[in-house]
Amino acid sequence: MPHPNDPSLRSFIPVDPASDFPIQNLPYGVFSTKAAPAPRVGVAIGDHVLDLAVLEGEGLIDLAPAFDVFAQGSLNAFMALGPKVWSRTRARISELLRHDNPQLRDNKILRASALMPMADTRLHLPIAVAGYTDFYSSKEHATNVGVMFRGKDNALQPNWLHMPIAYNGRASTVVVSGTKVRRPRGQLKPPSAEVPSFGPCKRLDFELEMGVVVGQSSVMGEMLTEKQAEAMIFGFVMLNDWSARDIQQWEYVPLGPFQAKAFATSISPWIVTREALEPFRVQGPVQDPAPLPYLRQTEPNNYDLQLDVALRAAQMNEAANICRTNFRYMYWSSVQQLVHHASSGCAMNVGDLLGSGTISGPDKHQRGSLLEISWNGTEPVELAGGVKRTFLEDGDSLSFHGWCQGDGYRVGFGEVEGTIAPAV
Amino acid sequence: MPHPNDPSLRSFIPVDPASDFPIQNLPYGVFSTKAAPAPRVGVAIGDHVLDLAVLEGEGLIDLAPAFDVFAQGSLNAFMALGPKVWSRTRARISELLRHDNPQLRDNKILRASALMPMADTRLHLPIAVAGYTDFYSSKEHATNVGVMFRGKDNALQPNWLHMPIAYNGRASTVVVSGTKVRRPRGQLKPPSAEVPSFGPCKRLDFELEMGVVVGQSSVMGEMLTEKQAEAMIFGFVMLNDWSARDIQQWEYVPLGPFQAKAFATSISPWIVTREALEPFRVQGPVQDPAPLPYLRQTEPNNYDLQLDVALRAAQMNEAANICRTNFRYMYWSSVQQLVHHASSGCAMNVGDLLGSGTISGPDKHQRGSLLEISWNGTEPVELAGGVKRTFLEDGDSLSFHGWCQGDGYRVGFGEVEGTIAPAV
């Protein structure tokens, strides 16, 4: 049997070469339909969704001794079964979708119940988020922010090159793409004000990130090796770490961001598996100084994954691209992040979500936040028809697209979108 | 029917006046026994545990339309039922335990199945922790730390008097009293070292805190009023926010503590309800400047709650008291903390745990951490028989006791204890 990543595979569902979801991808999500409103697990194939709960119910996917794993509103139960089951299941789904396999292709009744146009589905948050952690692992982003706030000579903090810096975020407000994002209120104290006031954020921003979905738990008190950490990663999503820059500026010393990042974090609905990204692994940037032994890598753990950010103001007909960058630029890899996260003995759980940190690149058009794009509000970006932005305004719609380009096909992430609703 | 807080109430189980658990308390916990190892919900009464799953099963406590609420390994399902049910249930338990009520008292078979000596039980983590947030709300603690690290003139950060500063902690490592705490490893870079190294923490500390158990959820995007926040508080536990000072010092700029606080947080097994603490409400310190309107309080939201910290090194026969302070000193109340937490629109969940921040008082013996007690390691504290400490050593056992003193009875929290195990 060919490997599910084999570029020559074709599905019996026709898939456009520009689609994010060919048979080489098979990302997992949670969906519902009007006819069947209970959320359940599916896989994206072209512009369709394959209902895994139906396939499991029909005995076409066997997860015994576990059962009803896909008839659930999150992927957590499936993830808990571990990497061997993830791999076996993906191979089985690939087999069922192949153009030369009649089992599902020629069973009209089964096709009608198991395959539906994605346009007819509603996509839900794919995981029950156990913990949400946000890293800060792009050297370009950390440098840009550092130059803005501390000047060129002290841009990177002394610890930055030695460990993947991170903070614990708020899991309760992780939402799926398409959820409106309400402009937060908070304490604001511009440098010119004597005392803080409370009101709507005036410097609302996005952060372009990828998110690691942790699919296995670790033992409290024990560290992880590179291999162990890698095996625990179920897959990746795109992640928008919405940020209230003015709230953050006033609150973050000395304990870090709190309400500035607590109001919403959006993720894409489809989790692209680590296995599907294997062909796109690349070496990350050279790490100098060499990381301490517990953080050393023996393998390339970065991915060649293109990322686009588009912004559409309410008065615009079409979105304008404001950033095009690549996940490969990240200084600290997701594996290093996970190893560091557990290094104190911190237990990791099924459903943990790790934000990569804002993904900026070396060029100006590769900046992954408006803070950087508008250089702290001093250089407004021109969108179209005279519309300019320093930070986000009410009604703005922000969307990320991400994909790995194969030879004649893409392994993509779809979209993560959020539109700004006015403060209450 | 008398109110369950009535000081004149007596239970048919004899309770020592020095006990933490008279009929005026009735704290909730999760326990199991050798004979029945499935964790379930109970209430502490004197030196006994009352099995609420048995009472619910027998129809003596009616939570309809909910059922099997107490035959569970956490209090989350019960908490989700809301403050009216909490209050009604507590009144019913009080009624069943009263010395003049024969219903349970004289039913030998029921007593044998529903009441057991606490010494024969194992106490578990009482809640499934949804999110863990740690505040920093004692002015004395923040000032002590500030003086140590920044000098007297800049002790308090400019934001401190305007909002309850906090960071998101790690929910996955909240453990119940009695769980061994493994000394964490991490990156250390003493000021004298050129580069960091990785190894066991050398400056391991405790932090004396109270924890708020949030029993209701809030709506994402919406703020809370003082009244709403108060009504969401199910109860309180004692909380030890174990801290690796050397790891923290190197990692915390600019995003706050991460691995330094991620390895363990211990809580006491019994949740004392907010209702049981009502008689001990007191006015907190004067807040000057006056808080912004969203943080203003119309009621006294502090509690007169005495707290003791005892440290016993492996070679000591008896623990030595190293701190005696009071929860009433907290500058920001738990209600203000919760209001601030939701102020950006951050959704709160059933099972959220909010650490108060280290509780120090104005006097030297009221310092709630070894960092303060030993003044950053410069003034070792004498325990007994020549044993001194700056920070915690392997084998040290640390325990908190806390209680509100009524007239002839106590509403207490029992103990939260942790013993340091060596690093792996």
CATH domain fold name of the largest domain in chain A: Fumarylacetoacetate hydrolase, domain 2
Give Rg of chain A in angstroms. 22 Å
Oligomer: homodimer
Number of individual domains of chain A: 2
Number of helices of chain A: 11
Largest interface: A-B, 62 and 62 residues
CATH homologous superfamily annotation of the largest domain in chain A: Fumarylacetoacetase-like, C-terminal domain
What is the number of E strands of chain A?
26
Structure notes:
The structure is a homodimer of 424-residue chains. The first copy, chain A, is an alpha+beta fold and 424 residues long. The first copy, chain A, has 2 domains: 97 residues, Fumarylacetoacetase, N-terminal domain (SH3 type barrels, Roll), CATH 2.30.30; 290 residues, Fumarylacetoacetase-like, C-terminal domain (Fumarylacetoacetate hydrolase, domain 2, Alpha-Beta Complex), CATH 3.90.850. In chain A, 18% of the residues lie in helices and 27% in strands. Chain A has 11 helices and 26 strands. In chain A, the strands form 7 sheets. In chain A, strands 6, 7, 8, 13, 14, 16, 17 and 22 form an 8-stranded mixed beta sheet that branches. In chain A, a hairpin with a 4-residue loop joins strand 25 and strand 26. In chain A, helix 7 packs across helix 10. The first copy, chain A, is globular. Chains A, B: One of its GO terms (molecular function) is fumarylacetoacetase activity. Chains A, B: It is an enzyme of class 3 (hydrolase). Chains A, B: Its cofactor is Mg(2+); Ca(2+).
